[in-house]
Specification:
The longest helix is centred in the last third of the chain and has 32 residues, at 219-250. α3 (50-79) runs parallel beside α7 and α12 packs antiparallel against α13. The chain contains 14 helices and 2 strands; from the N terminus they run ββαααααααααααααα. A hairpin with a 2-residue loop joins β1 (5-6) and β2 (9-10). It is mainly α. It has helices at residues 26-30, 32-35, 50-79, 83-102, 104-107, 112-116, 131-139, 155-166, 170-180, 187-190, 205-213, 219-250, 262-268, 275-283, and strands spanning 5-6, 9-10.
């Protein structure tokens, strides 16, 4: 048996610091006092499951904050032709996406009966109003200027979403990098209005087909194409799990934010970020 364990009790080593009067603490560094005091159920009497609902959405917002941080860095690296650094950021986003998708299973433990007991206190609060989620969508290229109206009463969130609307998307930056590397990206694609949602551009398919046809010569570009496909696949999985969780908990009721609910979420599955990277697959080996 380990000498440091006796009667199922671990000995505290002499070198372990226990006096934190003048030292940085774990709680202080993470501001846990603020973080853990940010959950305030409004049901009265407080419903047991409301805390789950709050924490589920708060943790999602924390992950969205990190996704935006990483996507912003990825865009900056692409502008600087630092493809390897950009891929590292994208790889981290993919892991975050897996976590946020998996955590829908936690919310899915909330039954319709349980949710109905506190849903009314949400009023018109809805995930549709998540500024960070919208900024992520915009950064990936699925832009919609009409969404800005949702944030007009909140200047800080409006600024966040508007900045994402007006900035080149991750895909725009990648296409510009390809053009600088000598790939024949059409000039009108490079000069497009980046505040508009990306639409399928058939002229780009041959550009990607050439990359996929000679992966040895274009390995970095090829790898990036596949990483972007992973991003979109992961995003669609998140959307699908969102849809199925909502369907499981409230059925076909209208959303608290006024949407039609499940049918509105289903239409999101038809939205795309990088359509040419899927279209090129029809051409490969054809």
């Amino acid at each position: 048996m380990d000498e440091g364990v006796e009667r199922n009790t671990r000995t505290i080593e002499d070198t372990v610091i226990t006096d934190f009067e003048d030292r940085m603490t774990y709680s202080g560094y993470l501001q846990l006092g603020t973080l853990l005091d940010a959950q305030h159920p409004l049901s009265s009497p407080e419903h047991h499951d409301e805390l789950l609902f709050i924490i589920q959405h708060q943790t999602t917002e924390l992950w969205l904050k990190l996704i935006l941080h990483e996507l912003g860095a990825a865009c900056a690296h692409l502008r600087a032709d630092e493809l390897g650094h950009a891929l590292k950021c994208i790889a981290r986003v993919k892991h975050i996406q897996k976590t946020t998708t998996d955590q829908w299973s936690v919310l899915a433990t909330l039954t319709p009966t349980e949710y109905a007991q506190f849903r009314g206190i949400l009023g018109n609060a809805s995930g549709f109003q998540s500024a960070q989620y919208r900024a992520v969508e915009f950064t990936l290229g699925n832009k919609h200027a009409g969404m800005l109206r949702v944030f007009e009463s909140d200047p800080e969130n409006l600024a966040l979403v508007q900045a994402a609307l007006e900035a080149p998307s991750l895909y725009d930056e990648f296409l510009r990098l390809l053009a600088r590397a000598g790939h024949p990206v059409p000039a009108d694609v490079l000069a497009r209005d980046v505040t508009k949602a990306w639409e399928f551009t058939p002229e780009l398919v041959p550009v990607f087909a050439a990359i996929y046809a000679d992966t040895d010569a274009h390995w970095a570009e090829y790898e990036t194409c596949e990483e972007l496909v992973d991003l979109e696949d992961n995003f669609q999985l998140w959307r699908f799990r969102h849809l199925k969780t909502v369907e499981r908990i409230i059925g076909y009721k209208r959303g608290t934010g006024g949407s039609s609910g499940v049918s509105f979420l289903k239409r999101a599955l038809d939205l795309t970020f990088f359509p040419e990277l899927y279209a090129v697959r029809t051409e490969i080996g054809g």
